[in-house]
Amino acid sequence: MKWKKTELDKYVQAKEYVDTILLPLIPFQMGNDKESEKSSFQNEVINIFANEIEKELSGRVMLAPNYYFLKTTDKAAEIDRLNSWIQDIKEQPFEHIVLLTFDAGWKKHEKSLNGNILWLPGMQSGDLRSKETAEFIRDQISQISEMIRSYW
């Protein structure tokens, strides 16, 4: 299920079965052209991952809106903000909070967060329509889905 009106209606009716929320953590940066390009590419790729994982684990997972953070901001400063998102999410209640990111820096702060970080080995650039990219994503989806199932 996704954060859309029609799917939220379904969620309300099946709330007791949907116990996991998937929250993509997306870096944002406009100040540096090269980093902006990299961040925008990773944004597209992580959204593909998140949508595919949501499809794969349909019925147990809700895909939350993306959480954007400035790449240049100290992650320790983001922890309170992110934990307030997580606290609000847990009020539904969701038992499992899975944070998806390409940014390995979040892993260092996982103990301070009220969720599980799934760091995805990153693609820095490429062609989203290429056969190689599609294969990479397909291979990763099954592994990530298994990892999420292990939390259950």
Describe the structure in brief:
With 152 residues, this protein is of the alpha/beta class. 47% of the residues lie in helices and 17% in strands.
Describe the protein in words.
The structure is a single chain. The protein is of the alpha/beta class and 152 residues long. The protein has a single domain (18-151), classed as Rossmann fold (3-Layer(aba) Sandwich), CATH 3.40.50. The protein contains four helices and five strands; from the N terminus they run H-E-H-E-E-H-E-E-H. Strands 1, 2, 3, 4 and 5 form a five-stranded parallel beta sheet that branches. Strand 1 (20-28), helix 2 (33-56) and strand 2 form a beta-alpha-beta unit. The longest helix has 24 residues, at 33-56. It is globular and about 45 Å long. The model has no long low-confidence stretch (mean pLDDT 88).
Salient structural properties:
Rossmann fold; single chain; five-stranded parallel beta sheet; alpha/beta; 152 residues
Q: Count the E strands.
A: 5
Mean pLDDT: 88
Q: Separation of termini?
A: 17 Å
Query: Structural class given helices, strands, pairing?
Result: alpha/beta
Largest sheet: 5 strands, parallel
Map the helices and strands:
Layout: H1 5-14, E1 20-28, H2 33-56, E2 61-63, E3 67-70, H3 75-90, E4 96-101, E5 116-119, H4 131-151
Parallel strand pairs: 1-2, 1-3, 1-4, 4-5
